[in-house]
Amino acid sequence: MSCFLNISGIKKVFHEGSESESNALRSIDLAIGKEEFIVISGPSGSGKSTLLNIIGGLDTPSEGSVELDGTLITSLDENELALFRRENIGFVFQAYNLIPVLNVKENIEYVMRLLGYSQNECDARALEVARELDIDAYLNKLPDHLSGGQQQRVAVARAVASKPKLILADEPTANLDTANGEKLMELMRRLNEEEKVTIIFSSHDPMVIQKARRSIVLRDGKILEDIKRQ
Ligand code: ADP
Ligand code: MG
User: Fold this and answer.
1) Which residues, at least 6 apart from 149, have a Cβ–Cβ distance to it below 8 Å?
2) pTM of the predicted model as reported, rounded to 2 decimal places
3) 46 in ligand 1 pocket by Cβ < 6 Å?
């Protein structure tokens, strides 16, 4: 049976110099349904970022395949992949990756503009997500003038604005204090429930991990545990 996201036999070997190599992922199989809300946890170096990068088509596996909503993304060339990512996946990283010379509204609209949304559609959607994320007061500000928590919410707004099917977030709460981390998690959960977007995020904070409905634990590039909660 085919699933929304099928990860099959993924291995990733990094070659560092001529001698040493690192087996970042050793054989990952996962079937993920639409609208799941998943955390990937595990100690530093266990392969969380590598797995998220491969799922999102930012890196290629040494072996194995990733199929997202019927598209075998591991067989796309670079141009096809860039387009596929833009249309289907929203990314939220630890370093917010906001464009410093664009204001908050322009950052939020960035992907929508690339996808050819009209100015009216961009205006309406930017305001809608900004309100939802409680950043509508800062739409004309540059990212530099916002706190870390506010910048992270802008990064989430940008990721969800174009209504991607999948959101990938690599340790999205790592630079936030507890209160802002909790707010961000509530928000992601709300987006998952209300906007029906599949969310996969990584974390090693127990408070954050417990918010997810499915918990996948990595250890040395392998899945140690995969638990669904209600
Ligand atoms: P995590 O995100 O869980 O901390 P990573 O996916 O970043 O783990 O790393 C998994 C393993 O792969 C680690 O041993 C790391 O050193 C190695 N690794 C990750 N990226 C690279 C890279 N670009 N080059 C070489 N080794 C890497
Ligand atoms: Mg990492």
Assistant:
1) 176, 177, 180, 183, 184
2) 0.92
3) yes
